[in-house]
Amino acid sequence: MNKRLLNVGLVVLIDMLGFALIVPLLTFFADSFGATEFQTGLLVSSYALMQMIGAPMLGRLSDKYGRRPVFLISIAGTFIGFLILGFANSLWWLFASRILSGLTAGNISVAQAYIADVTDEKNRARGMGMFGAAFGIGFILGPALGGMLSQFGFAVPAFVSAGLAFINLLTVFFWLPESLTDERRAELAAQKKVDVSLAALI
């Protein structure tokens, strides 16, 4: 299999492992700071809300400047978000952690774009299948690992997730080459013009 596909699959696996490790514990984090049920609900949903705002912007940046820079920005935001979560001493720091992590949560969409860049019609399904497997494995193992680590304190899973994000930073920086060629960039720009024209007609 294409080495770049394996590397981006590893990035997705590590990213989802760190994400899924924390998610089941968020309510316990909130409870430890005396959050109400409403505040806990806001905390859990704040990530998705910020992701809805940030992901499209990161996607456009990746089409313009390349996949690697956006990967690095996204992972750095995730890393800092997990550190804030681990050191949080109030409910508002929990919110700050989830808001930052959500705003910079562009890894998954950028990974899909990366796979589209490095595959053709013949092997794209295989590449997306590998993406799905990495996503699923991370999401399966993460909650179990988070539950075990939480026995040593809720900060421990957060710091482990930060460590995983740091490993991802190194993986992208040293082993994941840029996938967006000039030809692919021009193709995406042309497609956007077509989409805008169709939208104007509608």
Explain this structure.
With 202 residues, the chain is mainly α. The protein contains nine helices and no strands. Helix content is 84%, strand content 0%. Helix 3 (37-65) packs parallel to helix 5 and helix 4 (67-87) packs antiparallel against helix 5 (91-103).
Give the gist of this structure.
With 202 residues, the chain is mainly α.
Helices and strands in order:
Layout: H1 3-22, H2 26-32, H3 37-65, H4 67-87, H5 91-103, H6 107-118, H7 124-149, H8 155-175, H9 182-201
Helix pairs in contact: 1-6, 1-7, 1-8, 2-3, 3-4, 3-5, 4-5, 4-6, 4-8, 6-7
| Helix-and-strand structural type | mainly alpha
* CATH topology descriptor: Growth Hormone, Chain: A
CATH class: Mainly Alpha
Task: Give the SSE order as H and E letters.
Answer: HHHHHHHHH
Would you identify the CATH architecture?
Answer: Up-down Bundle
The overall pLDDT, averaged over residues, is: 92
Q: How many structural units, i.e. domains?
A: 1
**Radius of gyration, Cα only, in angstroms?**
18 Å
Helix fraction by DSSP (H/I, runs of at least 4): over 70%
